[in-house]
Every structure is written in C-alpha cells, then in structure tokens.
Amino acid sequence: MLKITRTRRLDARIPTASMADIAFLLIIFFMVTTVHDVDRTSVAIPLSQKRSDTQKGAAYVVVYKDPESGEVLYKFSEGTQMSRLVGSPQDLFLEASQITHRDPQKQFVIKADATVRYAVIDEVLDNLRKAGVENLLLLTQQKSQEAGG
User: Fold this and answer.
1) What average pLDDT score do residues 7-20 get?
2) Which of 35, 73, 88, 126 has an alpha carbon 20 to 30 Å from 18's alpha carbon atom?
3) What are the residue ranges of helices labelled H in the chain?
4) d(Cα 86, Cα 90) in Å, to the nearest integer?
5) Could you give the count of Cα atoms lying within 13 Å of 133 in the half-sphere of its Cβ?
C-alpha cells in the first residue's frame, strides 16, 4: 500500500527587506520637491492686469491689518525663513539695509493688504528706498480675462 504524504502549505509572505529603502527614497523625494512658503499671512491682495514672477529667495515685507484690533502690523522675511513680526517701517529699514549691504541686487516683495491705507505703504516704500532697495515688486493677484474682451 502506497502511503500518501501530505505536503505542507507555505504561508504567503511579502518580502519586506527593501521597504526601508523605498521609505527613505520617498522621504528624500518629498523633501526635495516640497516648496516652503516664507509667509502664510492671509491678506486681500490687490488686483492688477500684469504680473511678474519673483526670484527664489526674495525678501518679503508684509503689511496688513490685525483682524481683531485693526492695527497695522509689519512682517519681514529674508527669503529663507518664515516671516516674523517687526515693530514699524523704521525696523523694516534696518532689516532691509542689512540685506542690501550684503546683496545690493536682492529682490524685495511687498505683500500688502488691499485695506491698508496707501500712506502706510508709501512710508514702507520710502524706508526701503532709503535702505538701498533697488529691485522691488508689489505682490498682486492677476485679473481674469473676460471672454470676448
């Protein structure tokens, strides 16, 4: 009589040896492709017909009204770090003059709330001009083109 032997079933397994390599590659990919904002202050940006692109690493000056108190606040970023509060346009002058001393062609971007009075923006512009800023852009939102116009 022939004895039939039962074969043992193998469990299904997923090879996990290369999972760590894949995880590290994904982490590196996302770190390299992620764009970091230097300012996330929510402001109502004015509309314009034309727009220009800003240079990577441009310094940011943010002028906006505090929603609770209505007080005008100023933020500044060199372009590599998140923006931080500064006290006044004179403080913006000090920050900008340090940067223009190192790099006279550094681009500055003003991100101003549309509800801030122009006299405040004019004071900021004067202080940046005195600090030696030559390359300046005002951040705007482009108007959409109407059909047929």
Assistant:
1) 78
2) 35
3) 19-33, 89-102, 118-130
4) 9
5) 28
